[in-house]
Structure formats: C-alpha cells, structure tokens
Amino acid sequence: MSRDALLAKIDRANAGRGSDDVKAAADALIAEPDRYRVTFQAMPLFDRFVAKATSETVTATVESLDGLAHLPAAVSAYMAAKDLGKRLALQPRASLTSLDWTGFETVDTAHMNEPLALTFADAAIAETGSLVFQTAADAPVLLNFLPLHHLAVVRRSSILPHMEDVFDHFGTGATDQTRSLNIITGTSGTADIEAKNVRGAHGPRFMHIYCIAD
Amino acid sequence: MDIARDHAPRVGFFVTCIVDAMRPNIGFASLKLLKDAGCDVAVPATQTCCGQPAYNSGDDSTTRALAKQVIEAFEEYDYLVVPSGSCASMIRSHYAELFADMPDWQARQQAVSAKTWEILSFLTDVMHYTPQAAYQGIATYHDSCSGLRDLGVHDQPRALLSKVAGLSMVPLDGNNECCGFGGTFCVKYPELSTAIVTDKTTKIKATEADTLLGGDMGCLMNMAGKLSREGSQMRVFHTIEVLAGMADGPGICAPALK
Amino acid sequence: MKQTSHQFAANVARALAEPTLKIALDRTTTLLRTRRAKVIDEFAEYAQARDTAEKIKDHTLDNLGHYLRQFEENALASGARVYWAETPADARKIVTDICKSENAKTATRVKSMLGEEIGIAEALTDAGVERIETDLAEHIIQLAGDPPSHIVMPAMHKTQEQVAELFAQKHKEPSTEQDVTSLVGSARRELRSKFMNADISISGANFLIAETGSFVTVTNEGNAELTTTPPNTHIVTVGIEKMVPSLKHAAVFLRLLSRAAIGTEITQYTTFFNGPKRAGDRDGPENLHIVLVDNHRSDMLSDFLRPMLRCIRCGACMNHCPVYAAVGGHAYGAVYPGPMGSVLTPAMTGMKGTKDLPNACTLNGRCKEVCPVNIPLPDMLRSLRARQFEQDMPSGMSKWGLRAWAMLATRPALYRLGTAASNMALRMMARGRGKITSVPLAGGWTRTRDLPQPEAGTFMQQYKNGRR
C-alpha cells in the first residue's frame, strides 16, 4: 500500500474525530505545564540543579568557578588527581580554545579510548540536573560520548527550570533545530544485567561539571 | 449513597454461585450482619450467577441473559449486597456495556448497578455499622483484585477487623498481588495458576500469621487449597465470617472439628 | 524471530521447568517494581501527567493523518528521506535496498522493538550485512542466540552468572571478575571499535515530533549516539503511532517513560535528531532514512484496540503481571510479551495462532493501574476473547463445560437441582476430611491444590429449609 493509500485509510478510520483547529487543540493540552511537572519555587535554580546533578541516580560531580579563566587550572587539578596525564580532547569552541592551555596536549577530536574531553553545554535543566548540547560547527557530538571522563562547562545563567524552557529558549519550530540536541543527565549506565545499576556502559563513566558564575 | 428512607433499608442478598456451592457459612454470616446493621434482608429465589464466568470467556450473549436475570430479581430492592468484590465489580462496572444498545434494559441495568455493593464496604460506607466480634489470632489480609482496583475496597475490611477483640493483623507482602485464581483462568491454565498461588502462599507463610482473611471466596479457596496441600495449619476465613462471630468452625479446606 | 504463540502451553511448561529463569525474573521484576513505586510516589503531579499524556495520545491519534503529513514535510525539509511501509516485508525491503545501494557490510544497531517486529535481522542477512547489536542486553542475546524476552530489558531471562559464562566464552578479552561492573566493562571493550567502523547504523525511535520532523531516542548507555553518529548512513524504523505534536508535548512523555520503565526521573541520554549532517557539522550521518511502519496500526484505529496505540513501550505492565513473573517473556512466543504483547500479537499477526494470549490472564487489572497512559488492557483482552467467541474458536473441555453451565444458570430451578447434586457428590469425595484431594475432570486444580469440602447442602437449599 502506498503512502497515499495508507494516509487515506487513516483518514477514513478517523472520520468525525479530528479537530478543526488541530494546533489550538494540541496547545490547549499543554497550556498549564505546572499541573503535570515537578515545580520547585522555593529552591533557587542553581541549588536544584546541583542537588539533582550530584544525586545518586545522576552521579555527576560539580565544581563552581568564578570565570572561564579559572578553567585550565581546575582541569589540570582534576587530571592530576585522577592520574590522567596531559592529553585533553577540547571542544573547538572559541570560548574554550581561547583559554590558556599551556602544559596540556590538546586535540579537537576524540579517539575511541579517549580518556577525557571538555565541552561547553549550551544550557542546563534544573528539574533533572541535565546538560543540553546542540550540534554545531564547533561542537561535534562524539566529544560528549567517547571519553571515559566527560568534563562539561555550563554558565549558571544558562540553567533553566524545565525541559520546556530549553525548547522555548532555542526555538520550537522546525527551522530552529540543530542537527541534534542531546539532553545528557549524568553518566552512562545500564541495568541490563539483573536490573543491577552500573555506571560506565558505552558512554562516559565520569562526569564533572564546572558551573561558571556570571 | 444513602437512599432517603422511612423504612429499614431493603437489601437483596446475592450469595454468589461459589459461596452457594462451596461455603454457605459466608452467606449466613452476611445475613446475620446485615440484619444486625438494621437491614431488612431478602434472598431472591431466582438468583444463580452474576455472569462473570461467561463474560470472561467472551460469551456476551450468555452474560446478558444472566445479567437480565439479576436485574429482574434485584431491582425492587434498595440495595444489592454481595460478599464478593469480583461479583460486585461485575454488576457495577461491567453490566453497562452489555446493554449499551438496549435503552429499555439500560435504564434498569444502571439502576441495579448503581445500588450494588460489596458487603464489607456496604457495612462501613453505607450502614456505618461496626460489628462487635471476637477472634483469637494473628491474621494477614489478601486484597482481591477486583474489589481493590475496581471498587477501592481496602480500608473498610481493615477498619472492621480492627474492632474485633483478640485479633491482631500483620501486613502481607504483596497483599495487592493476584493470587492466580482468575475464575476461568485457573481452569484453563492450571500450571500458571499453581505457579502464581505458590508465590502467594510463600509470602503468606512468611508473615507467620495463623489466619488468612480476604473478601472473595474464589481467591480464598485457591489460597486455602494450596496451603492445605502444603500441610499448612493456617486457618482461612472470609472476613465476614470473623465479623459475624461465625469463624469458630473449620476454616476453608480444614477438617471438621468434630 | 519465529513466532511460537500457538505453542503457548509447551512454552509455559518449558519456562516453569527452568529454575534459573524464575531466579532471574524474581530478581529483576521485584527491583523494577520497587524503583517505579518509589519514583512515582515522589512525583506529586503523576496523576495529572498521566491524564495529560493520555489526552495527548488520543488527540494525536484522532489527527494522525495531519501529524504524519506534517512530520514528513518537516523531515524532508531537514534533508532526511522518508519512506512508508505497510507491512514488515515492505519495511525489510526498504532497509535491504538501502544497505545494498550503500554496499554496506556491517551495521551497528540500537535496540528497537519495532525492528524486531519487522524482522530487521532478516533484512540485514538478505543484504549480506553483518549485524552488530550495541545495547548491552541485545549484545547478550545476540551472543546467546535468544530472542528478546522483555521490551525494555531484553536479556531479563538471563542471570548474572549466565551472562558471565557467556562473556567468558565469547568475548575477545573477557573480564576475569564476574561482578556486573566488570561484565559491563568487558562489553564496552568488545564493542568499542565497532561503533567507529560500521558502514551503516540502524535504530528505532521512541517518539516522532510532527512540528519539527524530529525523532527522539531515550537510552542510558550512550550506544544510541555512538552508533548513529560515525557511519555515513543512519536508518530509522519506527511505528506511526510514536507520533506526538511538538517538542513540549514530548516532554510530558519523557517525564513518564523512564519513571514507569526503570524508576528514574529521566534517562541519561535523551536525544532529538533533526535530519542528516549539515554543512559545517563536524560529525553525523550524511544520509538519514526514516521508515514509517504501519503493520496493522491503521487497522487498530478502527476498533476497540485503538487505546493500545497510546503505548509508549515502558514495560510497566509486564513488570507487574503475575503471569509474566511466573514464566517470563519467551513463553508468549512473540515479539511483544506480557499484557501489551497479548493485545498486540493478535492485532498484528491475527487471531489464529494467538488464541491463548488474551486468555492466559487473570484480569487482575494491575497492568492498567500502572500504565502511564491508562490503557485499559484487561478490557481489551476480554474483548479479544469475545471476538474469539464470535469467531467460534474452539477451546476444548472448558467451552463445553461453560455451555452446560450456562444452560443451567439461566434456569434457576434446574440450577438448584444441579448444585444440590454436585454438593452431594463433592461431600462424598471428601469423606469428612474437610477437603477433597482429587476430583474427576478437575485434575488441573486437584493436582496441586485441595478443594474444600462443601457444607451439607448449598446456601439456597439451607435457606429454603429455614436456616437463617
């Protein structure tokens, strides 16, 4: 059956059911999102984000920095503490590459056993402790997935309350979308063996988030 | 829902096919409590079955015939009261679709469905009656599926049992999990039914209660039958028997005391 | 996989005879139920979320033609190619043709139940493509040669010990330790290079977004992104009922799916894919092919099975089903097990050969209670039984027993005689012991359970004789 025949069959099955103004009917269903999602007015966004990101179902660690200039020193300390050498896969974003990486051996793509990568999150979600990454010319996807240690940078001002706010922020229309949008909530894991939770499946096993005050 | 009345509530008692055949004591315990609660109780002579076995087998036409029989027998009463969550659920929630295309019958069906009550919830929620009874023992409670999920019967039996002198309750792990009876299911799939009831009796025995209580004879028969086969000394009763002070004889599947 | 639902009784017997299966099922379903209960308890807005999700699905299904057209338009505009497959064979042909035209030799795959449904393994074999499963559970069952036994945790039938043994035999560098962390590490090592070197990637989708032409994957391991990014070509096969109107509508489901399925607020990786690689992108597939699959979903729109199309494939129903807990997923003999499978399998593959599935259910209602989109599963299973009855499908002894009983039950006077007679007969068999251990024609019960000895006389007899 061709596309047209299938659509005709579906339309026949739905005769008398559809809405006159489909978009209005759809929008009405999500007009009051606070009725169906967790709200946390009493808690500042940042506190909520950190509480969720460091919770035992997300398992990221979080560090606050006063500005991007402090990043290389902080990363250096992390790598020394974990005995990770000098090689750093660095997202080719100007705000990161323009920092002082003296003493590091930086590369801009990750190989499959890359020890760690540093990438800039485009936003964060307080509700779930998630980071949001859009693809771009200076933001390949694989840097967020290949390394064992994922170091992520996020500006405190880009922490939004809910997933819907992220969509509003970047645009909800077809032409607003980048090739992909990754909402990453902590470290890779699996419960496929006897439902026992384990970290470090195929994606990063460790996530360390630098929150930049601004 | 209390019908405004200037007379004692007139209750048509529906004994259920399984209580009629296997354990009339539950029926007589029900009559006693309904009278003690202030009801004027009758037992319509033409009752046989609510139709659930036929309904669950997909035989809608037999189900409809039995439903009509129930409607005709009970529509003159203020309430239809039944000592079973699954039969009450059948009449309250499942009769409607059988008469969707029959407007004359539909009105009569809706009236009967609306005034059908499972007995434990009837005693608490409608009659606001708490029996005075005594029973020495530690009991655990199994919540039968239809009563629990369709009718919300959960707090009522526990409230009633909390007033029984000498009785203490211990919770059952998995109290809301199916016992594997399922009516026609245990007949068609006995091995599956056995596997499920075995899990259930394992959990029952782990409570270390000496008594098992519940609100549906089908479930109770199933669990008592397995416990008995396993050599357990647990006593199994329908809650209404304890509440009526009529749990001094043999439990379900137990040998006669004399 | 080869469907064996027509051999349900044999499947059940085999499952019940396997003690390790019961161990695996008890360990996993208990954990999943506990986790779900905790996270739902903490979600104060759960009832509203569930209600909203149900309404969004019903609205989308009511306007499915509109949304499919909108999705296609937007997906095409993003540079993807969109195909329409009515049957599994149609879908397989599309996949095979793409693989052949790419000269593909290897394909990495992200778990997809729809892929199982259409027989994707066969499509790849036909194209001469080596299939590499990347999801840990799919990797396990690929090594074991088993079909999936659960829609979220396909290797649920395997104990940890069994997985350890499997990896020790089949991995290139198996771990010496047998704890779960080491086993996962072994799988990570085994699959690492396959991600980067595959010719083609294949996935399903958890949701389709009409307004943007996107598809969404909801995963935990990282394999979805690692699989679908490196190769030149990515093929997505997805059921048409996965549609939601917009990104914000998807958010409603994303809050429910992970909670219902595994008891977490959100999975680690929620990815929205919007077309193939764009100018300037550093990675991503040059070619994106989206295959929209019908396989009787359009038929389900027209009858009482319609609510089944709301399903978001969380697996909560089977985690709470006493039949699933007793025998596991393979016993159902079909792609989809448990309560949802017992509805979908007859709907997708026909009433014959699936007769047992709607019947092997106690109608206890727990599945409906935990369904995040409120699908009336027991009602649909019963309606399938009514359809079987109309189609006069034989069901042996029990059907004739039911007929005989129905004849009596509709004739109260005869019924009294019948019950009085059986009352006497059963009492004789009990011989005063309070119980009956063997009843002719009721071996199914008395093989494993006692039957209570009835009282002297039925209730109606005693009542008529004056007992009050």
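qc> Chain A has one domain: 40-212.
qc> done
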